[in-house]
DNA sequence: TTGAAAGCGCTAACAC
DNA sequence: GTGTTAGCGCTTTCAA
């Protein structure tokens, strides 16, 4: 069984308070410093987090609730976040709610009962109802990727400027002469979906055009969903000459569907995608794309959480990051 | 601030012990049962996990250390595991060590200091040195996907029969007339890599053949790595007529490489892959593949951990699950 | 079945 | 700078 501060006290002849103070960064006589350090080493002393937590009411643990573990964007952001928080000695408990609002609410409840210090959430339920327990409980919440407007002022959020991102991409294709641009979106009602849709609409409007309704495909941000949406677009009587695919997983599905249909980019079809990930650096390097800064997002979320946790009176804020438009050669100029 | 058992005691006039006992499943008089239930509801009482943990020395938290968050196999297994454990009221802290043994060791240390009740690990360091702290500490360890032989008897493990899986797949291609079968493996030295390699060798041996050395490509289980390995195989003076790709991420890379090279399956090349995932059901449905039961693995790991945690004297064991060989139409009979 | 009381290991207020 | 001490909120003897 592990040793306690009492053991250290006995061994060094010092009082508990002195030891506790030193271990928490207080100053003690050099002589005692040495004494304690030695004892800690010899006894393999490790402070008992349970006792510390009981006393301070802090778990040094952050809860994270995401829609799905099997999504490249989420895991990429989480990887950075976890890294950052662990360096600050915070543990991260991740719960996956499988896109189910009911499960999402349960996950929040579970985490609050586990007494996490803060909650990071990529929300599935766009109403934010699942967060009420956290809010009542004064547990700080930072939303990830998706803002919930009705919770403005009560939670922080880190998002990208989705309207601008989709608008720029769409304009780029319109200006290359494409007027039939297929749009593959995520689930309807979701923050990013709506904003990317508006960006697309804005672009058309700016050029005095209107997109045909059938070009707009709502899907579900999965590889398989992307695959199906592309199939649908290709089967239209008048299929699009260009496509905007709004996340990475759906992009993979897209590439497979195009491959199967023997359609070449950009000769047969122009393409702009979202979210190319670093783990895929050398492949599809010709794609024109909207690059979301996952690493920056992850770090930004982690930092905001730490601020809320450690500083006094930090106001809640929505941080809007820009995505980067990276031109490749997957858009062909026509006419 | 949340209410405590003391508040309940005051409100009901009962003693702390009675309340504690009832809340932990003990029996009390029906009258008092009601009284307590009411008070719990009205006061929104939730037991303080910190105090409970301090008293019981259990965190009801399991630590998980994996090589990488961005890997379809790991996240798929974790999703199932997390689900199962959360149902049993265990939280899961996942740490990603980025394939780095040093980081892996730090992660283990972090989790032990957080006093997790058990450790689940898909090991990066094949020597198992990173686990010494957990073992000294008597924290039960369940290995995932990869056994560490030197730790036999000290840890449990859930793996699949990789030799059989690779052997069956290779025999299938040999018997279809292919003698030049490219093999795309993970990192050298890794349990699954070695076993899959042996399975491939066994198959050749059984047919009285020997594979050319250049056909065996060690890669890294990433999409990009798979892409590069395929490119290499295709550039051989005498390229293979068939390939065995030993995980899902590398399979994606493979499909992209083949697509770029305009190589069709199975007309130009026969192919067997590992790990098709459910999230990808309708795509590549023609692939002949080795299906690893991620869900079963995840549940099996979780169950073994719970057994170790709650039963007396459970011996450590290695559970070897079978993979399923699913014949599609991606292998062409030749000669 | 119930309640009083001890104590898990730490932190922090207070007095020295 | 240091030591004494009183809890944090629970579980668990033990006696009633």
Describe the structure.
The structure is a homodimer of 335-residue chains. Chain A is an alpha/beta fold and 335 residues long. Chain A has three domains: 5-47, no CATH class; 58-160 and 294-322, Rossmann fold (3-Layer(aba) Sandwich); 162-293, Response regulator (Rossmann fold). Chain A contains twelve helices and twelve strands. The first copy, chain A, has a six-stranded parallel sheet, with helices on both faces. In chain A, strands 7-6-8-9-10-12 form a six-stranded mixed sheet, with helices on both faces. In chain A, strand 3 (118-121), helix 7 (132-136) and strand 4 (141-144) form a beta-alpha-beta unit. In chain A, helix 5 packs across helix 12 (294-310). The termini of chain A are far apart. The mean pLDDT of chain A is 92. Chain B binds a DNA duplex (16 and 16 nucleotides) through residues 4-6, 9, 14-18, 20-21, 24, 26-29, 32, 47-57.
List the helices and strands and how they pair.
The structure is a homodimer of 335-residue chains.
Chain A: H1 5-12, H2 16-23, H3 30-43, H4 49-56, E1 61-66, H5 72-87, E2 91-96, H6 101-113, E3 118-121, H7 132-136, E4 141-144, E5 156-160, H8 162-175, E6 181-185, H9 191-206, E7 216-218, H10 223-234, E8 242-245, H11 248-260, E9 270-274, E10 288-291, H12 294-310, E11 318-321, E12 324-326
Parallel strand pairs in A: 1-2, 1-3, 3-4, 4-5, 5-11, 6-7, 6-8, 8-9, 9-10
Antiparallel strand pairs in A: 10-12
Helix pairs in contact in A: 1-3, 5-12, 8-9, 10-11
Chain B binds a DNA duplex (16 and 16 nucleotides) through helix 1, helix 2 and helix 4.
């Amino acid at each position: 069984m592990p040793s306690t501060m009492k053991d250290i006290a006995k061994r060094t002849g010092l009082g508990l308070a002195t030891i506790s103070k030193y271990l928490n960064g207080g100053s003690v006589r050099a002589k005692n410093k040495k004494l304690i350090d030695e004892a800690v080493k010899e006894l393999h002393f490790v402070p008992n987090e349970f006792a510390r937590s009981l006393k301070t009411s802090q778990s040094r643990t952050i809860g994270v609730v995401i829609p799905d573990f099997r999504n490249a964007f989420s895991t990429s952001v989480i990887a950075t976040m976890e890294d950052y928080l662990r360096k600050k000695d915070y543990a991260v408990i991740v719960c996956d709610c499988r896109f189910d609002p009911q499960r999402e609410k349960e996950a929040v409840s579970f985490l609050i009962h586990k007494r996490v210090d803060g909650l990071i959430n990529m929300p599935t339920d766009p109403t934010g109802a699942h967060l009420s327990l956290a809010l009542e409980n004064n547990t700080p919440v930072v939303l990830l990727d998706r803002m919930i407007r009705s919770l403005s002022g009560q939670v922080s959020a880190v998002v990208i400027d989705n309207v601008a991102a989709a608008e720029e991409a769409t304009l780029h294709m319109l200006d290359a002469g494409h007027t039939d641009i297929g749009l593959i979106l995520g689930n309807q009602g979701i923050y990013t979906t709506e904003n990317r849709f508006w960006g697309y609409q804005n672009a058309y409007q700016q050029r005095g055009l209107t997109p045909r309704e059938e070009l707009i495909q709502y899907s579900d941000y999965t590889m398989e969903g992307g695959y199906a949406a592309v199939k649908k677009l290709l089967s239209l009587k008048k299929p699009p000459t260009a496509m905007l695919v709004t996340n990475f997983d759906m992009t993979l599905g897209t590439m497979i569907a195009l491959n199967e249909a023997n359609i070449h980019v950009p000769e047969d079809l122009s393409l702009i995608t979202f979210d190319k990930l670093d783990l895929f650096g050398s492949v599809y390097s010709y794609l024109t794309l909207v690059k979301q800064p996952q690493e920056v997002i992850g770090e930004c979320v982690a930092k905001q959480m730490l601020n809320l946790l450690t500083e006094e009176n930090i106001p809640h804020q929505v941080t809007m990051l820009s995505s980067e438009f990276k031109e490749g050669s997957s858009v062909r100029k026509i006419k």
